[in-house]
Amino acid sequence: MMHGWSRLAPALLAGILISALSPLGMLEADARFRQCQAASNKHADKHPNKHGELHVKSISYRKSGGFMGVNRGCDLDLSKMSRDERAKIESLFDLEDFMSLKSGTTPGAADVFYYNVEVVSTAGESHAVKFDDVTLPANLRPLISYLDGRSTDLRRQ
Q1: Phi then psi dihedrals of residue 131, to 5 deg
Q2: Which terminus of the chain has a smaller tally of CB atoms within 10 A, N or C?
């Protein structure tokens, strides 16, 4: 008989794999984008951005680990993207919250994915964090899902 964590682990792993490898992960990110876009429009009315400055300058993302030894990632320069694409990315997470996050991984965890995210703001501030499947904050999951969709296999480069 399996107890506690050992009983939940297979279901958790299956859920993580399905969300990371399926188009549903992208649908989740798109749904989050639409929700945040509405909230962003309300925020913009109260706090207009006079010169259209970016809040996020760039994002560097790496995903590694898992039982298959995944090594994927992407580097995004938001200044080279359309306004709509920048708005979509910025709606997926709160920059101020991200800059205050502390990294956290699970000691002794096996076959989990590790997520490294570094964000550089337009003010020149840089902040990097590392999480695994267990410690990844829920508020970063939409961003991670989006970045997974933009990632390429880094082992082939």
Answers
A1: -135, 170
A2: N
Contact 71, 154 (CB under 8 A): yes
- Here the tokens at position 119 are 């964000």
112 has a pLDDT exceeding 80: yes
Q: Which residue has the tokens 């992208």?
A: 26
Residue-by-residue DSSP string for 58-75: EEEEEEEETTTTEEEEEE
pTM, to two decimals:
0.67
Domain chopping of the chain, boundaries: 4-156
The residue count of the chain comes to 157
How much is the pLDDT for 55?
A: 86
Q: What order do you get walking across the sheet with 56-65 strand by strand?
A: 126-132, 113-121, 56-65, 70-77, 152-153
Q: Which two three-digit tokens encode residue 22? A: 């399926």
Percent pLDDT > 70 in the chain is: 64
